[in-house]
C-alpha cells in the first residue's frame, strides 16, 4: 500500500498534500502538524474516536476529521 504525508490543520482536519485548496504552502510556518510516510489505509480510520496525532511539526495537534475534498480525490484514484 502506498504511503503519503497526512497534514493536520489547527482545526483538527486531516488533509493530503495537493488534493484540496485547504492546505497551506508551508505547514511548518502555519503551525500545522503532520504524519510522514503514513499508510493510506490509516487515512480511512481517522475519526473522532480514532484521532491521528501529529508526529512532526505542531505535535499538539490531532486530526479527528478528514477533509471531504481530499477524501473524494483519494478514492477517485
* Total beta strand runs: 7
Tally of domains: 1
What would you report as the Rg, rounded to the nearest angstrom?
A: 11 Å
* First-residue to last-residue Cα separation: 13 Å
Category by helix and strand content = alpha+beta
Mean pLDDT: 90
Outline the low-pLDDT stretches.
Answer: none
As laid out across the biggest beta sheet, the strand order is: 5-3-1-2-7
Order of helices and strands: EEEHEEEEH
Q: What level of helicity do the residues show?
A: 10-25%
Helical segment tally? 2
* 3D shape: globular
- Please indicate the percent range of residues in DSSP E strands (runs of 2 or more): 25-35%
SSE topology sketch:
Elements: E1 3-8, E2 13-15, E3 33-39, H1 40-43, E4 52-53, E5 56-57, E6 62-63, E7 65-66, H2 68-76
Parallel strand pairs: 2-7
Antiparallel strand pairs: 1-2, 1-3, 3-5, 4-6
Amino acid at each position: 500500500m502506498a504511503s503519503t504525508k497526512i497534514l493536520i490543520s489547527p482545526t483538527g482536519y486531516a488533509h493530503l498534500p495537493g488534493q484540496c485548496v485547504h492546505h497551506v504552502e508551508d505547514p511548518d510556518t502555519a503551525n500545522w502538524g503532520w504524519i510522514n510516510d503514513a499508510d493510506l489505509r490509516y487515512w480511512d480510520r481517522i475519526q473522532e474516536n480514532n484521532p491521528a496525532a501529529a508526529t512532526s511539526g505542531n505535535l499538539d495537534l490531532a486530526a479527528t476529521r478528514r477533509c471531504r475534498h481530499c477524501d473524494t480525490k483519494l478514492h477517485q484514484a
